[in-house]
Amino acid sequence: MALFKRLRDLTLANINSLLDKAEDPVKMLDQYLRDMEEDIQDAESAVAKQIALEKKLQQQYQEAKELAEKREAQALQALEAGNEDLARRALIDKKAMSEKAADFKVQYDGAKLTADNLRGKLGEMKDQLGEMKNKRDTLKARAEAAKAQKQINQTLSGLGSNNAASGFSRMEDRVLQLEAEAEASTEMSGSKSLDREFAELEKKNTSDIDAELEALKAKLKK
User: Fold this and answer.
1) Is the pLDDT of residue 99 over 80?
2) Which of 64, 119, 147, 152 could form a disulfide with 101 if both were Cys (CB 3.0 to 4.6 A apart)?
3) Contact (CB, 8 A) for 8 and 125
4) Distance (Å, rounded) from C-alpha 127 to C-alpha 200?
């Protein structure tokens, strides 16, 4: 019982100590569970040894008890046959076996009590391991959600940082500049087109005057 309590206390102490230093909670939780599973394996080995001792003492007690009962029956048989000396020796051996049986019984009862306590503590450790596994799954989900939230927050924070805002402002100015250049180009193109039209019109008017002048010259000649 003291062994299991110490194992449990050490495991919990390690968990509480390392949680503060853990960089990756998910990996650390898995490591804690592996550590506790190893502790349980050690505990199972101790329980198995105690159960083996319990069974051995139980067998020794049962054999001594049965032999004492056998010697008593043999003593009675010897008396019936008229052999008092044989009966006396059987009773002497019966007394020795009864004392052994009583001693084995005390040891067996103690070993059984210890084994029962160890079984109970081992069961508690396994129950605790099951609870920790369930809690591990919940903590894993919470850790993943927290990581996702942190990443989203960092992304949003980056969008609002000075560098990003400054960059967007420069690009906005550049777009405005391009739009202004395009508009100026359109106006210049329209102005040139208008000048060409007036030039053609003037050219046409000049041609008409020249034609009319030639006609007058021809009239004078006539």
Assistant:
1) yes
2) 64
3) yes
4) 102
Tokens of 165: 């805002």
| Residue extents of the structural domains in the chain | 2-159, 170-222
Using DSSP, state whether 161 is helix, strand or coil.
Answer: coil
Give the CATH fold of the 2-159 domain. Answer: Helix Hairpins (1.10.287)
48-76 residues labelled b (16+ CB within 10 A) or e (exposed): eebbebbeebbebbeebbebbeebbebbe
Q: Tokens 């020249």 — which residue?
A: 210
Q: What is the pLDDT of residues 205-220, one digit of tens each?
A: 666 666 776 777 777 7
Which residues, including other chains, have CB under 8 Å from residue 57's CB and lie 6 or more apart? 104, 107, 108, 111
> What does the block give as tokens for 133?
């596994």
